[in-house]
Amino acid sequence: MAMALRIRFNYRTKLFFIVNVFFWLLVVAFITIQYTREREYKVSMLDARLQVYNDIILKKYQEDRNLSDPMISQILRDDDLRVTIIDHSGNVLYDSYDKNLENHSDRPEFQKALKDGKGHTIRRFSETDKRYYFYSATSGVGVVVRTALPYNLELRNILRGDMEYIWIVLAITVIINIILYFAINRISLGVSNLREFARQAKAGDIRDFDTSTLPNDELGDVSTVIINMYKELKEVAEQRDKSLEEALYEEKEKTRIKHQLTSNINHELKTPVQAIRGCFETLLDNNLNEEMRRRLLETGYNNTMRLSNLLQDVTLITRITDEKETLEVSDVNIGDVVGEICKDVDAYSIEKKMRINVSLPENVVIRGNRQLIDAIFRNLVNNAIAYSGGRDIFISMTKETDDCYWFDVYDNGTGVEEKHLSRIFERFYRIDSGRSRKSGGTGLGLSIVRNSVLFHGGEIKASNKKSAGLEFVFSLHK
Fold first, then answer.
1. Does the predicted model carry a pTM greater than 0.70?
2. Residue 437: is its pLDDT beyond 60?
């Protein structure tokens, strides 16, 4: 319950309250001291005035040893002024108000006059006439002369401090308080901005926070440093989270691809294995003629080669994706690689052979893996031979930058439908499944091409040429 009733003040209010309390304490102390000093000054002035009267009366008494009321009235000419003459033993020798007074040895002003020669009491009640008086006493030879003024409203106002001065001080204090409020408001601006920053940071959005609103002082500098440090830490944390997310995504993607690859491999292996099995089971029949035996052997051989190519492609694409660090890197001459591919194509049968038109500068050398670079150009050439239906293949280097060589490989065949272009680099993706299997394709060729290009820091894009044929434009990092 007590905690619920606690009032929560902001930093500006607390700071203003604390500073204001100390400031007002200082002002009150200053006014009190000044008021006391002014009152003491007025008291001393009044006492000095009465001391003059005391000296006159004392001198007159010591000359005549006799005082009367008319004589006192003639000397003082002040009806309110009371005069008392007391011997050093405290006996009252004369009093202008009462002739029969008790011993005055216990009166404070009398005791001070005997001790110091002079003394006064600001306000003391008189049992004689039941009034308050201001007393001033002066000690002389054998006697003490005491004069007294009634402590009435007029005398109280005379002895009171100057209230005009106090009102001026209070007015100045209020003005200073107003200035202090705006000054503290300005000082607390940095704290308020930090509070706003903390609120936005908690909400997770600090993009719109403007550090130019911070004050141009030490607190503003500290606030700016804290805000910049937070932004840097947030950027680092975001980058870390992004990297972790990418790593997790990459790991999940690898797992997905492996499962997909395993599933696709199992599917792809079934056809040649079943074909080979069927061939051998049929060959076990001794009633086959020679032509049938030869046809079965050719079918078994073709499916064996298809199975061998599939295993080779799977091994290569696995090394590219999972064993990059194990691949050997050396200087590879592109012209030599393309030249060997052209020689191999020349050995093909007439119905499979296509013309290869090469336009490469001499000594185009990159730092890379020779097997992968060979796989790039060989798979693109074999793809054109198997599926393009064209007559010519064109290989050229289109441009050179500070970091990369750009190559262009295309044919003059029929090309592919646009809907297939975005997927032709996927593993086991076939535009025409039946034709691909008939030609012995594994469905991994173009996926190997893309991964090999990426391994060498390049990029690749496939498109249909306006005239005819399918075109591959790619880069290889030097």
1. no
2. no
